[in-house]
Structure formats: C-alpha cells, structure tokens
Write a structure and sequence with these properties.
With 336 residues, the protein is an alpha/beta fold. It has 2 domains: 116 residues, 3-Layer(aba) Sandwich (Rossmann fold); 161 residues, Dihydrodipicolinate Reductase, domain 2. Helix content is 32%, strand content 25%. The protein contains 8 helices and 14 strands. The strands form 2 sheets. It has an 8-stranded mixed β-sheet with strand order 7-8-9-6-10-11-12-13. Strand 12 and strand 13 form a beta hairpin. The radius of gyration is 20 Å and the shape is globular.
Length: 336
C-alpha cells in the first residue's frame, strides 16, 4: 500500500519512549543462565551476550541432549539445578508445560526470572507462581515481547493522554499446533496488549473458535471495546493492530513495523516514525533496569503474565462452550 502524508496533518515528531527516571539507579552486571536452548533460547543468548555491560551469560541447559548446539562461547550446563545455582537471573525458554515447575524452583531459590510467554499453561499454575513470588525473594517477568514491538512502543506514547475507544488485533499464519491451544499459545500476546494499551484490566464479552482459531470480543476497564482474531491455520502471516481514540485511528503492521495515523474528522493520514531498537534487546534492557531497582515500565510483570493466561484460558472455555452448542458447519465466525 502507499503511505500518504497530508499537509493538513503534519508529520509526527519522534518522542522519547520512556519518562526520565528521577532517581539515578546504579546499573549492575547480572549473571544470567538459560533453561531451554531452542530457537527462542538461542535468541536470548545472542541478545544478552550483546549487552555485556548489563549481563554476563554464564551458560545454558536443555533437557534434550539433541537440542540445537549452543553458541560457541556458551557453556552447556548439566542440569536445571546447576543453571539456577549459577545465576542472578534465569531465562526460561523451554516448552510451555515446563515453564511453571522451572520458574517455581528458581523463585524458591531467590532468583529473578524472565520466562517466555505464555507464563505457563494454566491459570492455576499462574496463581501458584504468584504465591511463590510473594512468599520468597524472587521476582519474575514474562517475555511479552510485543510490548517492545516498535509499533506498540510508539502507540504507548501517542495514546497516553487519550482514551482508547476501540482495539482490533489480527494474528494469523501457519504455526505448529500446541497442546495449550491457539489462545494460550498465540492469542495471549494480544490479550496482554489489550490491557497494556487499553488502560486497565480486560473483561471478556464472548468468544468462538477451537484449538486452531478464535474470535474474541472484550472490553477494558478504561471503556474500550476490542476484538481479537487468531488463526494458526491461515496460509499467510499477518499481525496487525488497529487502535481508535476519539480523534485518531492508528493502523499498525507488527510484522513490517509500520504505523499510520488517520484523523477521524478529515481522513488525513500520516506515517508515524518508529524506534529502531530490536524488541528483544529493548526488553532485555528493561529487564536489567527493573533488576537494578527502576520501576518496571514496559516489561510485563508476573502479574501481567498471569492475567493474560487467565484471559486466554477463560476465552478458550467460552469457545468450547459455544462450540458445543453449534453445529460444526457454523463454528467459524465472530461471537454473537
């Protein structure tokens, strides 16, 4: 598509993404280890190794002996217990069913944790982890890295002073099936973004679908209404976000990293300049800042991750209930 800039709607000037921190916090170098050395685990190795002033990557462990060979400089650890003992912060990038027990053991040992999304497979597991964190010395964060997508980072600044009235998320494209279902595995990204950008908690208003696709209607405590469509069987990948305020409509392409703002009264369109930092790098910096004592700003906390899992599980339950009441031929479509 062509990107148009109207004279009636002047170009948007880049803005700093984060508020200045009033209290200067000392930046430390944190010892990090990993559990899970698949695709995401090795991405974290690359990112953390590149931030040598903030992290020292000690080593990594994977229960699969045939797992991808770690980076040449990465020490292969012999057990999860060794990984927990050797670190200040543990990065968990194992399969979803393994998240909860590993995070629980790390929290019990007083370690900080960054766990890949989703936090865990069920809301019950999430509640146990929240309790473990409250009872111990450990802190945990969840890798909802879409918060650090350049489109989302720009939106978070632009709509801060405006009430969001509507949100629409599209997340489709071929991906492997998951025992947790498409909402917990993929839709959880956008359920988190609905709360993050919508200004508060999220309530579900309806859902239809199955383990492969879903349409979800929602509402935020800030008064925005929203829709999420997720489909892992679609032939082509698409990840998009449309956000509407009283004055503007923002259309974001989360894959191409493009954001266009349209004035609702005149239709004038402007392409929004975006930050260039890689999302995982931005997330790692935010993690280091939080570990150093700065208030978490963009990074998802354990409580945020638990809320997203609970929403995904509740939406999946709605889908199952709705599906049981409909003939199979009628099950694809938006909630009534």
């Amino acid at each position: 598509m062509s990107w148009l800039v109207s004279q009636a709607c002047p170009p948007i000037q880049p803005q700093p993404l984060l508020e200045p921190v009033a209290v200067h916090v000392r930046k430390n170098r944190h010892k990090a280890t990993l559990v899970g050395l698949g695709t995401m685990g090795l991405r974290h190795v690359r990112v953390l190794s590149g931030l040598a002033d903030r992290f020292e990557v000690v080593g990594g462990y994977d229960v699969r002996r045939d797992a991808s060979a770690p980076a040449p400089a990465l020490l292969r650890l012999g057990s999860e217990a060794e990984a927990i003992a050797a670190c200040d912060v543990l990065v968990v990038a194992s399969p979803i069913p393994a998240h909860a027990p590993t995070v629980a053991r790390a929290l019990a040992a007083g370690r900080a944790v960054l766990v890949e999304k989703p936090l865990c497979a069920t809301a019950a597991e999430a509640d146990v982890l929240l309790g473990a964190a409250a009872a111990g010395r450990g802190r945990f964060f969840v890798g909802h890295s879409e918060r650090f997508n350049p489109v989302v980072r720009a939106l978070a600044r632009l709509v801060r002073a405006e009430a969001v009235v509507a949100l629409d998320f599209q997340r489709v494209g071929p991906s492997r099936p998951s025992d947790c279902g498409v909402l917990v595995n993929l839709g959880v990204h956008d359920l988190d973004l609905a709360a993050y950008l919508g200004g508060g908690g999220v309530a579900l208003r309806g859902a239809v679908g199955d383990d492969d696709f879903a349409d979800v209607l929602l509402e935020t405590s800030g008064g925005a209404v929203g829709h999420l469509h997720v489909d892992r069987t679609a032939a082509h990948r698409r990840r998009s976000l449309t956000l509407t305020t009283a004055q503007w409509t923002y259309e974001g392409d989360l894959l191409a990293h493009r954001l266009v703002r349209t004035a609702r009264d005149t239709g004038a369109r402007t392409e929004v300049p975006l930050p260039l930092e890689e999302p995982l790098v931005a997330q790692a910096r935010a993690l280091a800042d939080a570990l150093d004592g700065s208030p978490p700003r963009e990074i998802a906390t354990g409580m945020d991750g638990a809320a997203a899992v609970r929403l995904a599980e509740d939406a999946a339950r709605m889908c199952a209930s709705e599906g049981a009441a409909q003939p199979v031929s009628e099950r694809r479509g938006s909630p009534r």
